[in-house]
């Protein structure tokens, strides 16, 4: 243990704890701008400087370890005034466009400016003349607002191993740009949105589709329906001052109904359906030897894109089941429309997702129009929904909860845990085990696949068979798992796994690229906990027990992996031109 | 036969020396000498001698440091004093052959004047003396005996203790004790360690390291191998700036030759110490002289500095413990182990031992490379050696430490050059650039020049340097254009403080020094521009 | 260049550096030596060959002054703007060059004959001011000499027109 003092308060920490983290333990808050708890310190901004007694330098709190006997001073007149000058300098290179900025009121830079009472910028302004890049329809780059903190690059290169973003040039001319100075749409970007979730400013944000939603809602000819993803229910509250992880499902239903949606569905229903199809697929491959193992989950579109670009040799391993919201979309324009005598061409499906990649998924290939129309018309993020709620005049904080429309809305606990890493696997195992054994599982929880460790490997026993499992989240972590599979295949060795779950975002969808800002592991855990406790509280916790799903198969689809399911609920993959990462 | 003992080396040395002749001509052929026409002079000499069928060996050597007198030709004839001729153009060659070589008469008016000054050549001991392309010349000068002594007679601990005793401090700028740096690296535990020679030499207007690398590459190489042994490194890198093609070529040759003689590679000098070297090139980025940026550059990345700790001695190139030393530092090392730490410690002053090489340039009569014992006064360097401003002009100030340093006005020229004294004056020792400015030079312009350099060379990673430098430069331009206001001086000081305190690396932390020091000594020049 | 040829050339350049950590900058040096800049299609090929992300390659090329993304003119004129040369009149040489051939540092003449660039210290400070054309160094250059130096490199036709 290291003993030291921060502002004369004694503190004791593990070796290699930064001054920044140590200060938190004694309720001292050092301002930061470039540092993000998920990421290695870039040490770029210089806002977090502190003083160490006996030295005239000012080390950076975010990356300097506290050392034995150190006396750290975090705030004094000079430190604060240097911080203020640095902020003024940053603003001399940054547009004054808060009022119309994608990050207005949620910007880390803006709040520092407010905290420090910056009332004017005492230097001439030099704002770079760089164009916006909205070319991929998902992520918008606005490099004029970039403060070069390097977070997005660390995220895209190291956390996601996509290498779509980079710094170009140097010094004052340094700018953020897609790889090799091309447009984002030509880059290898897989649209995970993690860059936008980590950017402290409005330099990267999600493409805003809410105007399209309002337009559709205002069109008397259209029948607008909506669905919410598992992970949205436990995060939206953060926008309205609730504790992270609080489950607000009924309130969201109510708000959406007031906004004018004719039917409120739940993607959790789709998740249950996905599990039925996927678990059946697994049983086919595992128990009946039909198809390639390991089976790899495919409900995350950023992961699908990543696989198609960089791991095309894994196509055969992919589950062909569509992602839950695509299933709901397809059924909304067929099953639901038929049952309610609505012209499917007038049904307009909006998905509320934790995700930016879903904006792309909805027109990924012709299978996404299996109903004869584009199955999901637009996909909005949690952040967009929060803004829409505010625009709608709904007082979310005091809203009474309501129920969803049951046809495509009822769900089980298995559907809800989809939103956390390991959740899809756990849900699938519950059903697959039942399919194999025909019995009810004694214990439904698979603790080994839960939690935020980057790669989780475990074995379980299903009716005397060993099932080897891997769960990976954060695309860089996937490489390890895929490498292992590939090596085993090349060497003709025993397969390391039978079943693999992959989510592109760290933490899974609770940490999605379209979720409220400021995500940390602490938050991911709280959000996931919200989902797991909903699961625990439900009586129906396995997808195959979902009465609405059972009814759907009886009335409409026939059987899992049947012809109709195949048409509406499954998709194909193809290798995309190999990008060089 | 590869030498495997001190005796072997001494024998080799004897043989080479004995086989040498007492009559020869030497031409300085470093980049700058070549630029001044030395190549033409060299060819002309050989051609005319051949035509006249005179058997005199014409040798090539590195830079003697007397830039103002290039091309330099040194003539040694049996029974005559050795004479160096200055500014020998092609058409002077026939006269030298006729008068000096055939006629045995010194052409006094062409000879470089012999002056007694305080120069003392330790680092530059072989520069302009030996043929840098020939390892035999270096061995003849006693080369690699230090390495033999170290490898065969000392433990790494002893080497480090001796180096500490010598008092050697890093010549790359910061003046960190080299023995201590080696000690720390040697104590880092790892399966692999590296030692790097920093030959990035980015200070604009300075060329000490180029002089050494072009004139005596083996001296640096020998120091590097000794460092490898002491620190436990198994591999070394020579990081050389790409703007120095000749230095790169000579270093490459030296490595090949040293390998062939068993001074590099497996089982050096027959011991079980193995160590090899690789050259890596810079690519035009001043910041890559900074240790952590240099590491990133060797790793094939953008030259972004990273915060310390972790220090390179713990986590450096490819995350392995790495020791980084400057060219001049390493050339000193080989001298120290040849002649002993006590000898080295006896030169200079107590806290600044040994000598320092300066590149004295700018408005100075005799620009060139100068090596003096630490503690020599600025006046002795600028006037006794440099000959003052020349052209009847008065020297106004010097700048040491390049863009990280500051100006020192004429009235402080009696200050002895040591790390501490220069710092007290608001400048630094730096790597050895010494730019002389005369009465015609505007101090605001100088400040603007240096700041402009730092703005061009800022890596852009941290906000204080990236934006602060640009804003300061903008203010200076405003002032220089006569559009300044008095308040701008306050803004300059304010930004400067933020840059010093909040910049990530040495570049930004010191970039405002030239502005601060000119403001300190020549504020009136700023005010005059503002009033006008 | 056709794809096959390109692959062969990149292969030749990359081979000696294969498997060495941190080889990218050294490989880029070889490429620039060969083509006088780093052509885009070569970057793509190098990315594949070295298994280095394209993003990294462009990050590096645009960071280091030495690397060029476009073909420079036939003759590269470098004017040293190091301190010694600056003090000794390098800015006047830049003015004179512009007067002679109409381009500023960073620009290439329309006929592709000359590319002018400012560099920071060539290490010949004692002979300041210094300019280089290609590999050749000219020392203690006076503005009056500029025209003559450039004429050495002009194509006969251009030289005749200039005189
Ligand atoms: C911006 C900057 C540029 C530097 N450039 C050089 C350089 O060109 N050569 C050099 O030897 N040291 C340079 N240094 C100092 C090195 O970081 C390092 O201290 C030195 O190489 C250590 O060697 P030494 O202990 O032998 O001096 C530079 C430092 C900074 C901050
Ligand atoms: S990025 Fe932040 S500070 Fe900049 S304009 Fe947008 S809200 Fe304002
Ligand atoms: S904060 Fe100020 S500038 Fe912004 S909208 Fe309100 S009044 Fe306008
Ligand atoms: S969305 Fe994901 S892949 Fe695309 S640039 Fe951002 S981090 Fe990279
Ligand atoms: S775009 Fe955002 S995250 Fe990326 S460097 Fe700029 S400010 Fe940082
Ligand atoms: S993958 Fe994510 S967005 Fe899609 S259904 Fe599952 S939880 Fe929802
Ligand atoms: S993990 Fe979830 S939020 Fe992230 S990209 Fe995949 S589906 Fe979207
Ligand atoms: S101080 Fe300047 S050179 Fe150093 S890291 Fe910061 S921006 Fe880069
Ligand atoms: S190399 Fe010569 S030309 Fe360049 S800065 Fe040094 S003195 Fe000037
Ligand atoms: S938060 Fe520490 S440097 Fe930016
Ligand atoms: S010419 Fe050799 S030192 Fe200048
Ligand atoms: S050539 Fe020696 S200083 Fe320029």
Briefly, what is this?
The complex is a heterotrimer of chains A (581), B (532) and C (163). With 532 residues, chain B is of the alpha/beta class.
How would you describe this structure to a colleague?
The complex is a heterotrimer of chains A (581), B (532) and C (163). Chain A starts with a strand and ends in a 12-residue tail after the last helix. By secondary structure, chain A is an alpha/beta fold. Chain A is built from 18 helices and 16 strands. Chain A folds into three domains: 2-75, Ubiquitin-like (UB roll); 91-206, 2-Layer Sandwich (Alpha-Beta Plaits); 211-569, Rossmann fold (3-Layer(aba) Sandwich). Chain A has helices at 19-25, 77-91, 108-115, 151-159, 194-198, 210-217, 249-259, 267-287, 301-310, 324-339, 358-361, 382-392, 413-416, 423-437, 475-490, 521-537, 547-557, 563-569; strands spanning 2-6, 9-13, 51-52, 71-73, 139-141, 165-168, 175-178, 204-206, 223-228, 263-266, 295-296, 347-353, 378-381, 455-462, 465-473, 499-503. Chain B folds into four domains: 22-61 and 73-110, Glutaredoxin (3-Layer(aba) Sandwich), CATH 3.40.30.10; 135-345, NADH-ubiquinone oxidoreductase 51kDa subunit (Rossmann fold), CATH 3.40.50.11540; 355-438, Ubiquitin-like (UB roll); 443-531, NADH-ubiquinone oxidoreductase 51kDa subunit, iron-sulphur binding domain (de novo design (two linked rop proteins), Up-down Bundle), CATH 1.20.1440.230. Helices cover 44% and strands 13% of the residues of chain B. In chain B, the strands form three sheets. Chain B has a five-stranded mixed beta sheet. In chain B, strands 2-1-3-4 form a four-stranded mixed beta sheet, with helices on one face. A four-stranded parallel beta sheet of chain B has the order 7-6-5-8, with helices on both faces. In chain B, helix 6 runs parallel beside helix 10 (217-231). Chain C has 163 residues and is of the alpha+beta class. Chain C folds into two domains: 3-63; 75-162, Glutaredoxin (3-Layer(aba) Sandwich). In chain C, 49% of the residues lie in helices and 11% in strands. Chain C contains eight helices and four strands; from the N terminus they run H-H-H-H-E-H-H-E-E-E-H-H. Chain C has a four-stranded mixed beta sheet, with helices on one face. Chains B and C meet through helix 2, strand 7, strand 9, strand 13 and helix 17 of B and helix 2, helix 4 and helix 5 of C. Bound molecules: flavin mononucleotide, iron/sulfur cluster (SF4) (8 copies) and FE2/S2 (inorganic) cluster (3 copies). One iron/sulfur cluster (SF4) sits between chains C (80, 82-85, 121-125, 128-130) and B (204-205, 361). One iron/sulfur cluster (SF4) is lined by residues 146-152, 176, 198-201, 203-204 of chain A.
């Amino acid at each position: 243990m290291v003993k030291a003092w921060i502002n004369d308060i004694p503190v004791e920490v593990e070796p290699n704890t930064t001054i920044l983290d140590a200060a938190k333990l004694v309720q001292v808050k050092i301002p930061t701008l470039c540092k993000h708890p998920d990421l290695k310190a870039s040490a770029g901004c210089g806002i977090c400087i502190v003083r160490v007694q006996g030295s005239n330098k000012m080390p950076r709190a975010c990356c300097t370890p506290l050392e034995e006997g150190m006396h750290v001073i975090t705030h004094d007149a000079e430190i604060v005034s240097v911080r203020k000058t640095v902020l003024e300098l940053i603003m001399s290179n940054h547009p004054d466009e808060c009022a119309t900025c994608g990050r207005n009121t949620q910007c880390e830079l803006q709040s520092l400016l407010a905290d420090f009472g910056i009332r004017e910028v005492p230097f001439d302004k030099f704002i770079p003349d760089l164009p916006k890049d909205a070319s991929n329809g998902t992520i918008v780059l606005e490099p004029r607002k970039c403060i070069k903190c390097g977070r997005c690059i660390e995220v895209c290169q190291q956390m996601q191993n996509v290498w779509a973003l980079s710094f170009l040039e140097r010094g004052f001319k340094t700018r953020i740009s897609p790889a090799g100075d091309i447009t984002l749409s030509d880059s290898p970007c897989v649209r995970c949105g993690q860059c936008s979730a980590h950017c402290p400013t409005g330099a990267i944000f999600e493409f805003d589709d809410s105007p399209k939603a309002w337009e559709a809602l205002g069109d008397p000819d259209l029948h607008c329906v909506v669905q919410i993803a598992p992970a949205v229910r436990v995060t939206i509250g953060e926008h309205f001052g609730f504790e992270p992880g609080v489950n607000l499902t009924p309130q969201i239903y109510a708000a959406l109904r007031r906004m004018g949606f004719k039917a409120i569905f739940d993607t959790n229903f789709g998740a249950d359906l996905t599990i039925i199809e996927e678990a059946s697929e697994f049983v086919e491959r595992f128990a009946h030897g039909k198809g390639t193992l390991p089976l790899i989950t495919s409900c995350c579109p950023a992961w699908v894109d990543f696989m198609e670009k960089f791991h095309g040799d894994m196509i055969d391993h992919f589950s062909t089941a569509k992602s839950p919201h695509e299933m709901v979309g397809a059924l909304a324009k067929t099953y639901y429309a038929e049952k309610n005598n609505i012209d499917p061409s007038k049904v307009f499906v909006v998905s509320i997702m934790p995700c930016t990649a879903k904006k792309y998924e909805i027109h990924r290939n012709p299978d996404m129009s299996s109903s004869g129309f584009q199955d999901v018309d637009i996909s909005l993020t949690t952040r967009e929904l929060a803004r829409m709620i505010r625009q709608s005049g709904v007082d979310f904080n005091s809203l009474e909860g309501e129920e969803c429309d049951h046809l495509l809305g009822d769900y089980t606990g298995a559907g809800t845990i989809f939103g956390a890493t390991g959740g899809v696997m756990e849900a699938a195992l519950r059903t697959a085990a039942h399919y194999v054994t025909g019995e009810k599982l004694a214990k439904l929880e698979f603790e080994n696949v839960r939690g935020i460790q980057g790669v989780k490997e475990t074995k379980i026993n299903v009716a005397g068979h060993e099932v080897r499992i891997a769960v990976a989240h954060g695309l860089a972590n996937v490489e390890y798992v895929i490498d292992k599979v590939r090596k085993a295949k090349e060497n003709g060795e025993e397969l390391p796994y039978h079943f693999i779950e992959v989510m592109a975002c760290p933490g899974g969808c609770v940490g999605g690229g379209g979720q409220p800002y400021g995500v940390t592991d602490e938050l991911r855990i709280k959000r996931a906990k919200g989902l797991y406790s909903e699961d625990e509280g439900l009586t129906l916790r396995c997808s195959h027990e979902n009465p609405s799903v059972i009814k759907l198969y009886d009335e409409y689809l026939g059987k899992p992996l049947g012809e109709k399911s195949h048409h509406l609920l499954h998709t194909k993959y193809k290798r995309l031109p190999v990008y060089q990462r | 036969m590869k030498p495997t003992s001190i005796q072997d080396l001494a024998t080799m040395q004897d043989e080479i020396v004995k086989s040498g002749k007492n009559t020869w001509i030497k031409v300085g052929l470093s980049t700058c000498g070549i630029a001044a026409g030395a190549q033409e002079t060299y060819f002309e000499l050989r051609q005319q001698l051949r035509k006249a069928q005179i058997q005199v060996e014409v040798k090539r050597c590195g830079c003697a440091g007397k830039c103002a007198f290039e091309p330099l030709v040194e003539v040694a004839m049996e029974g005559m004093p050795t004479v160096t001729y200055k500014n020998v153009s092609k058409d002077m060659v026939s006269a030298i052959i006729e008068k000096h070589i055939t006629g045995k008469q010194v052409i006094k008016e062409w000879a470089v004047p012999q002056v007694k000054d305080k120069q003392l050549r330790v680092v530059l001991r072989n520069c302009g003396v030996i043929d840098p392309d020939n390892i035999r010349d270096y061995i003849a000068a006693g080369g690699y005996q230090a390495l033999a002594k170290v490898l065969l007679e000392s433990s790494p601990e002893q080497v480090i203790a001796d180096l500490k005793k010598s008092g050697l401090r890093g010549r790359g700028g910061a003046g960190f004790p080299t023995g201590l740096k080696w000690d720390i690296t040697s104590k880092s535990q790892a399966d692999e360690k590296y030692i790097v020679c920093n030959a990035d030499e980015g200070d604009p207007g300075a060329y000490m390291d180029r002089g050494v690398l072009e004139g005596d590459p083996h001296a640096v190489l020998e120091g590097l191998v000794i460092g490898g042994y002491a620190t436990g490194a198994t591999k070394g890198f020579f990081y050389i700036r790409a703007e120095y093609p000749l230095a790169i070529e000579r270093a490459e040759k030296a490595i090949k030759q040293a390998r062939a003689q068993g001074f590099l590679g497996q089982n050096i000098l027959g011991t079980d110490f193995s160590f090899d070297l690789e050259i890596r090139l810079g690519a035009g980025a001043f910041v890559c002289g900074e240790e952590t940026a240099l590491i990133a550059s060797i790793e094939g990345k953008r030259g972004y500095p990273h915060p310390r700790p972790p220090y390179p001695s713990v986590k450096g190139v490819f995350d392995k413990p790495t020791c980084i030393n400057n060219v001049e530092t390493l050339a000193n090392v080989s001298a120290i182990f040849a002649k002993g730490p006590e000898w080295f410690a006896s030169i200079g002053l107590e806290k600044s031992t040994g000598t320092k090489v300066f590149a004295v340039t700018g408005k100075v009569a005799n620009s060139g490379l100068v090596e003096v014992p630490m503690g020599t006064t600025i006046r002795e360097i600028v006037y006794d050696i440099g000959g003052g401003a020349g052209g009847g002009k008065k020297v106004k100030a010097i700048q040491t430490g390049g863009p990280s340093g500051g100006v020192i006005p004429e009235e402080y020229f009696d200050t002895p050059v040591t790390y501490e004294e220069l710092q007290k004056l608001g400048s630094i020792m730096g790597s050895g650039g010494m730019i002389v400015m005369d009465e015609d030079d505007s101090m605001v312009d100088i400040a603007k020049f240096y700041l402009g350099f730092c703005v061009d060379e800022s890596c852009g990673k941290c906000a204080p340097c990236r934006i602060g430098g640009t804003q300061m430069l903008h203010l200076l331009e405003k002032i220089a254009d006569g559009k300044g206001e008095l308040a701008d001086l306050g803004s300059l000081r304010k930004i400067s403080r933020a840059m010093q305190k909040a910049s990530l690396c040495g570049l930004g932390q010191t970039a405002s020094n030239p502005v601060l020091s000119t403001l300190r000594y020549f504020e009136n020049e700023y005010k005059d521009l503002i009033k006008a | 260049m056709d794809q096959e040829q390109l692959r062969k050339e990149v292969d030749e350049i990359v081979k000696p550096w294969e498997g060495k950590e941190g080889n990218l900058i050294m490989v880029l040096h070889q490429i620039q030596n060969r083509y006088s800049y780093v052509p885009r299609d070569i970057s793509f090929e190098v990315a594949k060959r070295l298994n280095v992300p394209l993003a990294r390659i462009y990050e590096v090329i645009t960071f280091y002054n030495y690397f060029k993304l476009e073909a420079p003119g036939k003759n590269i004129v470098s004017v040293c703007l190091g301190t010694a040369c600056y003090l000794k009149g390098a800015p006047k040489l830049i003015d004179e060059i512009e007067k002679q051939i109409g381009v500023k540092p960073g620009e290439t003449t329309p006929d592709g004959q000359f590319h002018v660039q400012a560099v920071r210290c060539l290490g010949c400070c004692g002979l300041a001011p210094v300019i280089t054309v290609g590999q050749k160094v000219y020392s203690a250059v006076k503005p009056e000499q500029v025209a003559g130096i450039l004429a050495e490199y002009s194509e006969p036709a251009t030289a005749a027109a200039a005189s």
